[in-house]
UniProtKB/TrEMBL annotation:
Domain Peptidase M24, chain residue ranges per copy: 146-348
Protein name: M24 family metallopeptidase
Pfam families on file: Creatinase_N, Peptidase_M24
Region (Disordered): 189-213, 286-305
Creatinase N-terminal domain residues: 8-138
InterPro entries: Creatin/AminoP/Spt16_N (IPR029149), Creatinase/aminopeptidase-like (IPR036005), Creatinase_N (IPR000587), Pept_M24 (IPR000994), Peptidase_M24B (IPR050659)
Amino acid sequence: MSEVYAVRRGLLRDRYAAAGSAAALVSRPANVRYLAGAAPPGAVLLLGAGEDVLLCPHAPTGDPSHGRPDEQLRVDVLPEAAGDPVVAAAGLALSADAVSLAVEEHDLTVARHRAMLSVAPHLRLADLGHTVEQLRIVKDEEEIACLRIAAEITDQALGELLESILVGRTERHLALELERRLVDHGADGPAFPTSVGTGPHSGRGRHRPSDRRVEEGDFLSVCLGANYRGYRCEIGRTFVIGTSPADWQIELYDLVFAAQRGAREALVPGAAYRDVDRAARHLLDSAGHSDGLPPSTGHGVGLEIDEDPQLAPRAMGKLDACVPVTVEPGVHLPGRGGVRIDDTLVVRPEADGGPELLTITTKELLAL
């Protein structure tokens, strides 16, 4: 992997050099990990001021959830008196005769920005912008392999839950059990806080589990994902508890399923982000559910659970091959509940079989 990280840093070097900066400081944790192989807590990456350096406030512990630093990188563990690695990086850039430094302004606080200027007042700071995030959109096959394993772990955890007794258990209990099962199957942890919604809570995006107990006839919606070697996936499913679904439940489920299928089929290289969103949204709008729809139909996944691209009505841009995204339409009826169906897929050309579905738990409306 060292060569991969070196290539990534080289691409970034070309970008900031073309913009007139002599060096770059990367501070956003996911971006640090993408370029350095690891992101120990508080670490930052300095590129271009002499050799590339990963500056850490504490010695890396080897925790697999933080990754493993690229062997080609110099790793500096700062003494406690050195304080903030961002400030130390500014001083290091200045000592290497850098006259300009590109920084991630969207990640730095005003206080840290001022602290950098206090130790390097003659260093010109420029905005690196979201350059690294843009590099991260298209994944290589090793990244996709990690996402594929994360999805397998997630499917296993959800499948085991579906085989257990659910009536009478609380949303909170079910969420905790799902997260434990993720770890049992090899995840570094959950990709995001697991959501479990029952009855009137079902179908809500990112519903925070409560002490409401599962009852017969409820819709049960779950949304979970595994974090495997830093890469995160997402799956969402909706079920009926303990009895045959009511007519309104079947009708609503079939509608959301059709919307999700339309968006999945629109995932082709060259498709506009907004067109993928429209493929799902127009069906839900036409059925009278325009109020309260999620702001987007899906989003990119990778080292973060919600990254570019955004599949939203006003999103600009077009899909490339090897871009993993979620497709997650949903409808929530206040006081009654609702349906969410969520998959993680990788955009592939038609010649390669079309979009690759990573999360494969059945989307049939099961009565559990």
